[in-house]
Amino acid sequence: MQFADRLTPLQTNVFADMDRAKAQARQSGQTIIDLSLGSSDLPTAPAVLDTISEALYDTSTHGYSLFQSTLPFRQTVAQWYTGKFGVPVDPETEVLLLIGSQEGTAHLPLAVLNPGDFALLTDPGYPSHAGGVHLASGQFYTMPLLVENGFLPKFEEIPAAVLTQARMMVLSYPHNPTTGYASLEFWQTAVEFCQAHNLVLVHDFPYGDVTYTGEPAPSVLQADRDKTCSIEFYSMSKSYNMGGFRVGYAIGNAELIQALRQVKAVIDFNQYPGIVRGAIAALSGSQEGVERTVSTFRQRRDAFVAAMARVGWEIPKPDATQYLWVKLPDPWARDSIHFCVQLVEATGVALAPGRGFGKYGEGYVRIALVQTPEVLETAVQKIHQFIAT
């Protein structure tokens, strides 16, 4: 049987690889402490669950859900976004319901790129960003994210020959996996760069609320208030602990929203309407649950960093996301995948190897703070003992 060439670069994936390693460790008798996946262990708010539960008995929710039926959700998003960021939004033309923000980042290249066109991606970066470009038969140029640059790209280093063939740039701040943070001034620079080079500016924005500065992270649309070239993807997974419900949305330039809507129309309908009602309840109800979620991850961040310091391993304390981006000591820094596989086999502690997020992630591991402080401290002890042996 012969398969498409576009599958070749998709044969490995950091999450699938670690899933196999965790399964093998379980078979050998290990109890897994899974810090490899950013899937929140915190519960969805009762008000959201009650809304979804009530919808189950409403037979009008049992059929297909097309674009027009999502208007209440789009109106809620527009109101929520304008209240939060002060940017007016048209719910009819500038918002699109998605089955998680990853759907948007994976499908938008199909609407923007012709075969051979370039997308500008970050390295390290989230795997679906490159995956969507591959599926669209595009090429990508990776912008290195280095600690000395605050994990921000240097636009001036992009070759002119690449820019002439480039059609889109994908950024994501607060950043997964590096936890890098971008200011509004950075976004203004990014928007001006994309306007000058006729690039679509894509912002993957799932961690906008998970900041420890007391303020939400800037939205790209605050720098592109007229929505000249920008589209942003937001997820309900992190702020509202709704990862399993797969709810996200796109917001931004009306032409980009329409193009993505055309792609979406031939691939899928929307998710179960009862889930969408739950998302409306989350966005329109009290936001105290978001504050509690952020406070919980702040406590976990502080507990993990303090536990690492007690075993003599100083690591930086990030201002955002539910992750830590930790540089490995020698000799493990040469092969983060080997380190993570060996660690989970020997101790049951599962981390995400930095190499799985790109070439410039080598030498790092990403640690998801999705366990209680007590479990995190146990994980630190196991990691320390493994490295010491």
Give a brief outline of the structure:
The protein has 389 residues and is of the alpha/beta class. Helices cover 41% and strands 14% of the residues.
Highest CATH level, the class of the largest domain: Alpha Beta
Largest sheet: 7 strands, mixed
* Strand numbers in spatial order across the main sheet: 2-8-7-6-5-3-4
Q: Which term fits the overall shape?
A: globular
Structural class, by secondary structure, is alpha/beta
What is the CATH topology classification name of the largest domain? Aspartate Aminotransferase, domain 2
Structure annotation, total helices:
13
Average pLDDT score? 94
The amount of beta strand, in percent, is: 5-15%
Number of domains: 2
CATH superfamily of the largest domain: Type I PLP-dependent aspartate aminotransferase-like (Major domain)
Annotated CATH architecture of the largest domain: 3-Layer(aba) Sandwich
Binned, the helix content reads 40-55%
Radius of gyration using CA atoms only: 21 Å
**Gap from first CA to last CA:** 47 Å
Which blocks of ≥5 consecutive residues have pLDDT under 50?
Answer: none
What is the chain-wise order of helices and strands?
HEHHEHEHEHEHEHEEHHHEHEEEH
Query: Got a strand count?
Result: 12
